[in-house]
Amino acid sequence: xxxxxxxxxxxxxxxxxxxxxxxxxxxxxxxxxxxxxxxxxxxxxxxxxxxxxxxxxxxxxxxxxxxxxxxxxxxxxxxxxxxxxxxxxxxxxxxxxxxxxxxxxxxxxxxxxxxxxxxxxxxxxxxxxxxxxxxxxxxxxxxxxxxxxxxxxxxxxxxxxxxxxxxxxxxxxxxxxxxxxxxxxxxxxxxxxxxxxxxxxxxxxxxx
Length: 208
Hints:
Blueprint: E1 3-7, H1 11-23, E2 27-31, H2 34-40, E3 48-51, H3 60-68, E4 78-82, H4 88-91, E5 101-104, H5 109-138, H6 141-170, H7 174-204
Parallel strand pairs: 1-2, 1-3, 3-4, 4-5
Helix pairs in contact: 2-3, 5-6, 6-7
């Protein structure tokens, strides 16, 4: 189905994810560090990268930054798959816009397959089909590329708002609850902005 690169410094996690996703029909390649991931990407173009944040050497954010700075790696979909909870501070990072999703560990086999197959991959396939439709209808590559960027970010913020709401339901700390509510409000406004922009682009080519 898809070629997926899994990057995590814990070999047991890589093996577990490989086993789960291979059982769902995917081709899975493992990397034990950010450095190894960048080396593998010299001769590999995966359909999706699952990237851990907390790794020695290059952490997930630095690996992502270096990846985006290399020709041919600018638009490969990357989802953080990490034990580091999504906080208000993390949701506010500028570089988070480079992701297509933020997935928290722990996970079950069912939830990981559901997320990868029916959330990320299906959404990305839908975005690619609509991008092709926009390009065919308008002949405007800039418009099609703008749609793809906005649609990926819309799905990221949709996922993050849902995750932040789950975090809010689990914490009793007043200060943290206040930060999470603010992050949720900001995320919802950002989400609505992307939705409106996407609808505007689609309407220009006759989609209702």
